[in-house]
Backbone:
């Protein structure tokens, strides 16, 4: 077979030409032609991931770090299944990516073979759109279309189902793929800026920001607007990317716990949603409604297809006088001493985190106090767990480092969540990524202890409590990191953490710090 | 809340009463009442798994080791997503299990929350049936029904979707759940034994065995039948459980590679499928048809709802004279010396594997020669990767050890596949399981090198080859095991392997042996 003579090459070449050049890959036999095509395209980059959830999470992190989509290469239904949880998180973050999933040759699908599965049932689960390819189709056009759709607001993952026979055959010229993808969003009209501004000028108004409004420019614009209209300003609880720190106005996040969020929104009569979703509790509750705004509050929202940042620009342009945004100043916290509390941890990060850092955060209960400490830190971008499916933090950090090799990437992670996609450490080592991973070892799914209390279930017995316990045996994160080629150390005091963090920032390649924040004892 | 006063307790108690007593669990907030219910039921056992694919794979291994279903507890759509790949393998193995998946409270599902997802799209992917529960339903009856359906031929995983509000409310008495589950198999009539026997008496006939026919009794019966009718005997390539060794007739497996399988079936005119599927290639191929039997061959199959073992008993009962089955004798191979080749590895296993061992096999290219060496080994049960989704071996071995604590469990695993669900090692340590894990470290997805050749794609360049390479950095399996509390050693010669294997068998609790079978160099 000569170069470019088979379908897979058309797909890969078209994606690369569309600017989708990095492939986070975990391939198998059915993707062998796609592997060969990536091999033959000098501008395609291949990043091997040892589990599919790492590949999808890394593409999400890449998108959040760069604003551009990466590609993901997966093996049939089961490979897609393994990648779904982080695709779910990516969809909620509105991260663009192009997921190419191999599928059996069309005539092989009639048979009950081991790897035969209902791939289509999965594809719709977390993708914005699903593209199928038939023999004779214009595969390059379909691929370009997929890449374009991924970055059309609302951005998100799109899936290309690549049957093996289509990949190994010559592509044709049928433009069928340019037509409707399987899932297409309905067009909605833009919210007019003047209407939004008038709305805000009413009493007791507030703006809830989300999406690309959370860049330095967007937050500054929003702060000017808030001052001009006398509105409060909030950001969503879990954001794909939130720029913060020195030189950017501080905005509170909507609290996670229902009780606190209700409190925060109690005084809001008019809420403008700019790229954000209507505030709803994370989980339903015995106590009642999931809605966090008052029943009589008015909500007004931008369209899903509208850029929140562009909306803010247009609204500010309507102001006769633009108040200067209240930019945060660098406020260095004092060096902490003694026990390794959350407060001590975030103080160290406040002191040492370099300008332009990208933070992939899944720090669980240890996150208490982080927002306040980061307020006066050097300017950084903070990536949250967006879909509640734990195991996003390490992959997203890994992908961010591939996309933004000059930035310092920091991963803050609960030990429980870190285990789901721990294979990401290997990809960091393979790519010599500039990542410092801090694992908060409390030997527990600590958040779930709170949930037992909040649900009035009393104190769990030994057996119930063991279902949240990582203490028997304790995980040894230093060995874990070293097993995958990542340098590591373990710390138990504030001073040790500060020293290890400083050294890690000065080290080439990825580093892991095991931060022993808990005794492993059950918290009551 | 008092004991048994909420829905979750009805579900857990009914499952336990139905004999489903072990819960492989990875819970979250939406399953907090189920956790409490397991805690309160003294006969329920909780086995924490640090990733959902470990939980589903372990329940599969438990079923294969015991013939009985375990339960799995998962968190919402994303938890189910993470468990799907090994559910796929379990479905193909026809392993019974009851998967309880939490879902948001019914009235919370209306909102676009982080963890909102289309759980139902996933549930049908790999489950035999999906049960939903409404407030007021007789939850105990639904749960009993689910447990019963899991063990009704064809066995398989069933899913119970447990909305949080149904779990925290009082159960009612509505018997709705006893009606049709979402997916139900059509009833098919049994194949009459006399018809099957007459079919086999024709020229050039063969029997292909699968399912529960592959126990010692079933294989002996099949061997008598084969002798009486002059038929050849084969077993499927990838079996859920295959009993072999001393005291059991040897039966060849249908080869994995298309070319070899076609060869094997070339002389078969009449093929009787007893609990097996029609022979089809694993992957489709450029060369042509997926079907492995000759186009003019006749196939006759038992019904899916028919027990293969019972069928064999009934067929043998029709014979006027029953030939004695040709039982294998113990044939101890010579102690190997020198390089750690597959041949050397299987010779060591032949010599040392204790009677009654359960083997969870995902050994990849290292499997060459295993079947021949196991022929004269002590009696054992061999569990294959059934659905082609790698990452089954460690979890299945872990679950088998929970289900059959007196048996020695052996896991043989490629290093690539072992990474997908490596968290299983921790569960082995937690349960002090009697498992010896042998990881074949060749620092490569070696099978995929063959596939490149078989597809005529020439030699991959550096980049393409790097997509199959685990060599940069190499994984250190000794550190990996120790990180999760499992004792480990590394070996590079036949003698070292024999010594380590012998020592591992004498050790309490789980052990891992890193067998350095390859140089990490690319095989050409
Ligand atoms: C894929 C997935 N599985 C399970 C859960 C349920 N869950 C939510 S938080 C949590 C424990 C997190 O533990 P850790 O990361 O150590 O943080 P900690 O609570 O100790 O701060 C679990 C299991 C989930 N959210 N997503
Ligand atoms: C879930 C899933 N992802 C990817 C694949 C594709 N695949 C098949 S075999 C293989 C490599 C297996 O490597 P290893 O376990 O080391 O065995 P070896 O080939 O080296 O013997 C891969 C990635 C698969 N079958 N299932």
Residues:
């Amino acid at each position: 077979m000569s170069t470019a003579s088979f379908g897979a090459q058309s797909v890969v070449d078209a994606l690369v030409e569309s600017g989708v050049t990095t492939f986070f890959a975990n391939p198998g036999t059915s993707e062998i032609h796609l592997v060969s095509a990536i091999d033959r395209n000098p501008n395609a980059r291949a990043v091997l991931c040892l589990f599919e959830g790492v590949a999808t999470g890394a593409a999400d992190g890449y998108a959040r770090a760069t604003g551009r989509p990466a590609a993901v290469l997966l093996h049939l239904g089961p490979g897609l299944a393994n990648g779904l949880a982080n695709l779910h998180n990516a969809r909620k973050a509105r991260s663009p990516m192009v997921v190419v999933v191999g599928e059996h040759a069309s005539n092989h699908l009639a048979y009950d073979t081991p790897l035969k599965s209902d791939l289509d049932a999965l594809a719709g689960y977390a993708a914005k759109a699903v593209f199928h390819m038939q023999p004779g189709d214009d595969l390059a056009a379909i691929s370009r279309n997929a890449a374009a759709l991924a970055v059309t607001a609302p951005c998100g993952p799109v899936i290309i189902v690549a049957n093996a026979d289509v990949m190994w055959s010559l592509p044709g010229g049928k433009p069928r793929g340019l037509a409707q993808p399987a899932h297409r969003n309905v067009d909605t009209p833009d919210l007019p800026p003047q209407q939004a501004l008038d709305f805000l000028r009413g009493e007791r108004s507030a703006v809830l920001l989300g999406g690309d409004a959370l860049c330095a420019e967007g937050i500054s614009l929003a702060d000017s607007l808030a001052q001009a209209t006398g509105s409060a300003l909030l950001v969503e609880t879990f954001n794909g990317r939130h720029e913060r720190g020195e030189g950017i106005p501080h905005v509170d996040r909507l609290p996670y716990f229902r009780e606190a969020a209700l409190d925060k929104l109690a005084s809001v009569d008019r809420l403008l949603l700019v790229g954000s979703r209507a505030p709803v509790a994370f989980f339903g509750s015995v106590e009642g409604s999931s809605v966090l705004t008052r029943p009589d509050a008015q909500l007004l929202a931008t369209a899903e297809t509208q850029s929140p940042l562009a909306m803010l620009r247009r609204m500010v342009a309507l102001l006769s006088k633009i108040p200067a945004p209240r930019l945060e100043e660098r406020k260095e916290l004092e060096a902490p001493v003694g026990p390794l509390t959350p407060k001590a941890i975030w103080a160290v990060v406040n002191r040492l985190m370099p300008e332009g850092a990208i933070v992939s955060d899944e720090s669980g209960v240890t996150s208490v106090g982080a927002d306040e400490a980061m307020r006066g830190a050097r300017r950084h971008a903070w990536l949250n767990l967006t879909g509640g499916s734990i195991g996003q933090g390490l992959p997203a950090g890994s992908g961010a480092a591939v996309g933004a090799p000059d930035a310092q990437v920091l991963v803050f992670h609960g030990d429980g969540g870190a285990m789901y996609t721990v294979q990401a450490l290997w990809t960091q080592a393979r790519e010599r990524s500039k990542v410092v991973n801090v694992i908060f070892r409390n030997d527990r799914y600590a958040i779930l202890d709170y949930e037992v209390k909040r649900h009035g279930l009393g104190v769990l017995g030994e057996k119930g409590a063991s279902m949240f316990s990582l203490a028997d045996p304790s995980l040894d994160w230093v060995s874990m990191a070293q097993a995958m080629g990542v340098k590591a150390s373990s710390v138990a005091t504030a001073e040790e953490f500060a020293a290890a963090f400083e050294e890690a920032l000065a080290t080439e390649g990825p580093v892991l710090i095991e931060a022993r924040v808990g005794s492993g004892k059950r918290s009551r």
About this structure: Residues A 85, 364-366, 388-391, 414-417, 442, 444-448; B 26, 28, 75, 78-79, 82 surround thiamine diphosphate (ligand 1) (CB under 6 Å). Residues 520-524 of chain B have pLDDT under 50 and may be disordered.
